[in-house]
Each structure stands twice: as structure tokens, then as C-alpha cells.
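Predict both folds.
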Amino acid sequence: MKILYYDCFAGISGDMNLAAMLDLGVDCAKLEVELNKLNLPGWSIRVEKSAKNGIAGTRVDVLCGECVDGQIGDGLCAPKHNHEHSHEHSGERRHGHAGGNSAHCGHRTFADIRSIILQSGLSSRSKDISLSIFKILAEAEAKVHNKPVDEVHFHEVGAVDSIIDIVGCAVCIELLGVDELRSSSVELGSGTVVCAHGVMPVPAPATAELAKMFPSKLNGASHECTTPTGAAIIAALAKKFNSPVSGRLVSCGIGIGHRDCAELPNILRVMLYDSDCPQTCYKSSKMCVMSANIDDMSGEAQAYLCESLFKAGARDVWTEPVIMKKGRSAFKVSALCAISDRETVAESFFRNSTTLGLKIYMVDRLELDRKISSIETSKGKISFKTSEFGGIRRVKAEADDIAKIASETASSFMEISEFALDEFKRGKTETVD
């Protein structure tokens, strides 16, 4: 099992991450081949060996519509052209946009970027990783600006250079064969930053929203240490934080930033471990639980509320009897949902219940991998969920199918359940849905 561990003691930005990946050993030519599948013209990547505070590593600049002597760059790993650039987020590289080349470096919506990625020739895994990073960033920006996710306009992150940062991260993860990402606590920094919306406090609003999803630190340095792009990478991909890692350290990469800092060296360290821990057979995801205590609704209205929460995107809904103030009997309604669905689930709570407030907290969900299959039996088609853990196979027939057949055959639910399990064990032909 290959584990990529992020040591974000001095923060993380998109260009520092890409630099660390190249320093770790990702082949520059292979990365360029994959990034060209995006069909985005007018960019080049420049890579050079550099150092901060005596620590050697790699530094990366993504140039958009600019290069030596005003000509478009000739590709990856060219010698770095030393010149001054304007930039928005102080933690990121200084980007060049000669002649105001907005055709290549302008603002894009999440829908625009999703279309670019989906229509590209990238592998399915690179697409999935890229979209997961952009999606979680779009959700943070949507929350900050109170807009629908697909209508969020990325400014700095919508430019070609930041698209290369994020998609490049996904490609590097695939090229390295990484199974799991883990991270340390993330330094956010302090002070202010100048961005497309003017002067903002550090962490920038989107970074602060994303930081709800991982452990972080403030005031370790007097500048922006973690940018929205860097925060989105950690929020979307890291599964564990500050957790022990054992095995063989295969390689260590140092990404060099563009800032000189007295408090912390402006670097990102990533370490690739060939772990002696077996790969888990379950998926880990960040979700949230929303709950409300209600003492003035009927049982019928409660049932309707639970149904509406499922329709709004909740993965699970449950109720618990509780005693509220003044000894009133009540019930607590809770809904488990993905972070991206919390707004619609919250709206359903307020629309379909009498509650005036919700409690929301983040949780980590571990979910066993499962397979959905079906068998044609003498009594009808029955679907099954199968999963494995610790060498034990678990099989469960779909309750709706069992209930339908029981009703049609005037049998009990238990009788059909036993029949279905016997049919499954006999090894009848299965078709995977």
C-alpha cells in the first residue's frame, strides 16, 4: 500500500504541491503528456532546482501566455526565466499574463472547468481526483458568495495556471500509484492577502471554509501560508491526519515556494511510503450530521419530514425519543449527508418541520466496498448487496424485492428471505448491475 504523506508545517499552495511531486520523482515528460490532454493552449511549466533556508528542492512556475522574450513557452522543464509577475494570492507562485491574455487566463465557472476535464483525454482516475478537488473548492466558494455551485466564478483558481496545478496533482497521484493520502496539521498563516475581491484577511474566506475539514494552525508566519487551492487538495484527498505511518520511505519531495519568510521555510514536504499496513477494504469520506429536537409535530408530520430529508439527499435519517425543557416529550431527527448536500438537507428541515435551528457537526464515515448483483429465481428477480471484511463475506437481499415477492406469493417476508439466501448459495447466475 502506497501512502503519500503531506507535511504541511509551513502550509500548502498549488504550485508548491506540484513542485513537491516533481521533486518526489514524477517524470516531467509523462506529466506534460497527460496535461496536454486537457486541450488548453498557451501554457508552459518551468521547473528549476532551488532552496529555502538551506533546504534544497524543486520550484515550479506555470506560465500562461508568456515566456522568454515574449514567446510562448516551449514546454515542461525549460530553464526558468527570471522576471517579475503580478499575483493575487501571496502564497501562490507569481503568475505571468503578458498582454492581458484573458482568453487563456480568464475567469471560469465550476461548470466550465468540469466540462474541460470531462471532455479531456485524461484517465478516469485523474478526472475523478481533479473533479473532487474542484468540487470541494466550488462548494466552499459557493458558501462564501451565497451562489449555486455551478454558478461560482473562479478567479485565480479559474485561470489556466491553477487548472494545471489541480489536474497536475491528480495526474501525479496516479503516476505514483498512490493508494491513500494523509496529512499533518496545516499551517494557515496570518495577515492579509490581496485577491480578486480586494484585501482579505488570512486565511482567505474560501480557505477558512475548507479548513473546517482538516486540523490547522494559525499565526505560524506573518503571511498567507495556505491558499484555497492548497486547502482544497488537502480537504478533498487526505483521509487521515497526524496518524502514524509505518513502512519503507520510498522517496521524499520538497516543493519550494516563492516567498522568503523569517518564521518558517517556505516549503512543502511530501513523503511516499511503501506501507506494511494492508490496504483497507473500506472507503473513508467526510460527511456531516444535521439534527433538530422537535416537540410540536405529529407522528404523521415526522414521518413526512424523514421522507423529505431522504429526497433532499440525506444518506441516512433516524429519530430518537428525547426529553426537552419543562419535561416535554419530543423526538430528535438526525440526517447524515454529504457536505455538498447540506444546504438542500437544511432547507428540507426548515421547510418540512417546525424547528427554528439545526445542530451540524462533521463526521468521518467508513464504508465497506460492496457489489450489487441480481439473480433470476423461480419466484422473480432478487437483488443482493455483498461485501467482505476480515475474510467474511456478507450477503443481504434487497428488502423491497423480498417484500414484493412475499406479497405476490402470499408468503411471509422471512420465508422469501430464506429462499433468496438459498438461491444465492446455490450459485445461480449473477448479473452485476
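Second protein follows, with its predicted C-alpha cells after the sequence.
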Amino acid sequence: MTMLGLTNALFLARSMSFAAGCGMIQEEAAAMDDFTYHRPVLATEVIELLAPRAGGLVLDGTCGGGGHSEAILQTGADVLALDQDPDAIRYASERLARFGGRVTLRQANFREAARVLDELGVDAIAGALLDLGVSSRQLENAERGFSMMRNGPLDMRMDPRRELTAADIVNNYAEQELTQLFRNLGQESAARRIASQLVKQRKMTPFRETMQLAQAVEKIVWRHGRKHPATQIFQALRMEVNDELGALEEGLCALCARLASGARIAVITFHSLEDRIVKNIFREGSREFLDRPEWPEPRPNPNYKLKLVTAKPVEAGESEQRNNPRSRSAKLRVAEKI
């Protein structure tokens, strides 16, 4: 093949790849258009395994649009619904209005659950639920800055009262800090290269918008397949802005402490970092004895307070995965207070 022919062939291949990528973006955007707050993930499994009791108070720490809360209320249990997103609280309050005084809503991160319970004079709860991650409605709202498919300010705050934004991180973190962030929270193999290039680019033009960042990353790491190259970068930024792993570890321990005997806690995660924290906390809390090589014999576990309900995480069935793509990566773990 001549040099001209090779050049034309490469140009054609890249053009086809770019067109395919654009088609994927349009498909992904169209799929998100079909999402609303009305699709709670693993709803049937949550109710079956959480086993809420009529008249008992269940804390839904990530209310979202109220889908899981609604399902819990329909069993006869009462609900204390928390969410750090004021839009979610507004939406859920309308959706759940027909339940009257059986539902209480508060704008708060679930790591603040103990404070809210104390304010309400509640010592123990009959169950708790956490559905982690970003909601479809947050993705659809360009002004929130979560989506790579809709241009908006580089924000990503689930609670608008927080000060730190994604733009602050991208424009102000040192190169090494960005590298660690992208590697640890985003699990991005090209973390160092992406961080280096972003630091160089921000000196000329600060990053202010979501698609500006997404396109910059795509030029650094060329698209392969359906997944956008900036997906893990956006994940890392969102998790850093909202301190998601810190909130999960702190909130999960607090909620387990407030469960009544026999009450259960259910947690839905969407990636391995979250799932690992939940698995470890549930595992450590369910060991009656601890053992170490240097000890002459096992010792009682002072944190023994849980019984595992799910030995392995429960995942969505094929039907739900077809109807709700968000459920494909969902893992549900449940434990019971002893």
C-alpha cells in the first residue's frame, strides 16, 4: 500500500471510530433520557431481605426520588428518609405525601443519621437502607455537573451547601494529588498521564465545564469500545467532592450501632471500592472471635454485633438489567443486628 493509501485508510478508520463514538454518546444520552427517579434498583430483593415490620421505623439514608421508601411504606413500616440533595427531598416529599405522618424527610447526609435520630428522639431503628452512587436524575440535570453527555458547570456536589467542587479539584490539586485521586478512586490505569496533561492544559485554560474536561481526557486516552475514556475520572472527582467513601464508612458504622436487635441493614453498592467497605464492615462485625498468630487463643470480638444475611452480594436478574442498565453493576449486601 502506498503512503497516501495508508494515510487515507487511517483517516477512514479514525473517522469511522469517531462516528461510532458519537453514536454511542447519543445512545447513552438517549438511555439517560429514559431514566427517572422512579426506578429503584433491586426493589423486590430489598424488601424481601430487609423484612420491614409494620409500625417499625426504617431509615432510608439515600432517599433519592423515594422509590425504595415508597416500597418500604407499602409494607406498613414507617420511614425516616434522608438525602443530602435538596432536589431529591423536594421530589420525594411530593411522591410520598399520601403516606402522611408515616414518613419524615430531612436533608442530611446519612453520615449525620445519629444526629437526626437524636433530634427526633429516636433511640433505635427497625431497619436501614443505603442505595449508593449518583442518581439518574442528577445525571440528567446538566447544571449539577455529573454527566459527560450534557454540558454544564464542573460541579458534582450532591449537597449544594458543600464548598469543594470538581472544578476546584481539577484546577487546584497538584499533579501528584490528581494522579493518586484518579488511580485510587477512579481505578484509572492512565492516571499519571491524564493528570500530567490536565495540569499543563489548565495553565492555559482552567477547566470550568463538564464536556470541556471529558473531551480533554478523550484526547489523552483514545476511546476503545462503548465506555467513555473520562468515565473513571468523573467517578473519582465525584467521590472526592462528596467524600463518598468517608461518608460510607462513618455512616455505616453509625447506622449499625442504632439498629434494634433483630433489625437489618441493606446496602446497595455500584463499584468495588464501596462494596469492599461494606463487606469488610459486615464481616468484622459478624465475627464472634478474633484470632492472630501471636495470640495463644482466639479472643472475643468487642465489635461483634451482626449476623450476615447475604453470604454473597445479591445482583439484579437479567430482566431488571435489561430494563434498568443502572442495575447491572449493583450489589446488595444485608446484615442483621444480633
